[in-house]
# Entry
Amino acid sequence: MKYLLLLVFLLSYAAIQAQTEAPLENVVITYTKKKTQVHPSETPQLQVNVSTKDVPKFKARGFVRYSDFGARGDGKTDDIDAIAATHAFANQHNLLVKADQGATYYIGGKERTTIIQTNTDFGTAAFIIDDTTVKNHQAAVFMVSSRLQASKLEGVTSLKRNQEKINVSLPTNSLITVSNSNVRRYIRFGLNQNNGSPQTDIFVVDKNGKVDMAAPIIWDFDQITEITALPIDEKKLTISGGRFSTIANQAESKYTYYHRNLTIKRSNVVVDGLEHRVTGEGEHGAPYNGFINVNNCAYVTVQNCILTGHKTYNTIGAAGKPVSMGTYDLIVNRALNVSFVNCSQTNDIKDSKYWGIFGSNYSKNLLYDQCTLSRFDAHMGVANATIRNSTLGHMGINAIGSGVLTVENCTIYGRNLVNLRSDYGSTWQGEFVIRNCVFVPASGSPVSASLIGGANSGQHDFGYTCYMPERISIENLKIDDSNHPANYQGPAIFANFNPEKTDDSYREQFPLVKTREVMLINVTTTSGKPLRVSDNAFLFKDVKVLNN
# Structure
């Protein structure tokens, strides 16, 4: 019986060994009597041996540590291979990963992405990510991925805006991503002008194809060139702790975005208590695409985290003129129901030397709650966003998209209460609801304030009809305009969106659909000056302003 059990044990590990190499991990694990050891390699494939004596010990303990796979944690030795190996083993055996308390893990520029598929406790350990010499700046350091595989959907050839059901049968709730490469949207205007992007949408359906109408389909798709379904993980994955420090790259200042980050590509994830700082920023450097980068997933919460704004560098934009480069510590792309709760940043949110910390594209139902951050940004079309109990810094709230933008119990230090981004047509197809807020224009600098910022000449085709919010409701707003310029006439509801249109002789080739109604309840100014409609009253002559 003793030898039979041993034979079964060895055969089981032979079976595991035959399946060791995961496409994302690129880690091959063997199981022998030899000691547990990672074979350092500069090649993409990592070779790891795990002692057959250690396996039952690790499984009985319920977790593995980086030191189990040879990590030194001395802040000098490059530990990325040991870290990647630890997670690869944990992924195979569904074990928790714990960093060693008090350790400092150095991660150099080697191309090695660690795949996380199980709960991870970084604890109080420190991680130094050295970007001064990086082999592949597009490779993430950590990637949270699903074991579930996306699949192409057959038979779905068109979709309609707000369609409630698609004709599919799926094994579980799934995230649907759809595109039509024959239609271009978000044709950008200005210094970073471009030819737009393929029409894209993302939404959730249940196994019977019923669409979650909290995040509806926002485009008509007369054609579909690609549509995929990614099953949504039902079990929550938690990543906690960790004190991360990036030694900033010294690359040329151009749009070669660094992805040396924690990328989340799995649904139903919580990141709790992580800290990220940046050191070594010099006179030049390439921008960053978010230290926490959430994409192609749903139901992600980032809470109790401390982030850092990156220094702003300039380059030459697509229009051939100097432009400031966006560089981020938080990014959300093609994701639904993403929340940031009780998050803050290490540097002053009103310091304009640092770019606004957050950007997003093609996402729905974004939330800030109890956050103190320099910016909220809906870049290429966000549907529905809520900002509450928060403080926004020098870059304030920037948005284009649709649905409802709700801002409540907040203090905003941007140039506008909400800025509708002019590079995408200053469009928001929906409404704004603003309650119980304080607005300090331009962080208290002497400016002539306007609540809703934006610009649109009506001469550029953005790939869609541009709408200002149909209805804007503002209740209990205090405007601190005590430090105002000479000849100040009081704050305006709307900025001058088109200074050239001052009478009916101006013709818009691509007309901007103006706001229909503004409801004002208890809006006060520190200066005592009354609220005006706009410097360009003609442009907004048809807007109904209701004071209650």
Q: What stands out?
A: The longest helix spans residues 2-18. The chain is about 5% helix and 45% strand. Residues 56 and 387 are 48 Å apart (CA to CA). Confidence is low (pLDDT under 50) at residues 1-23.
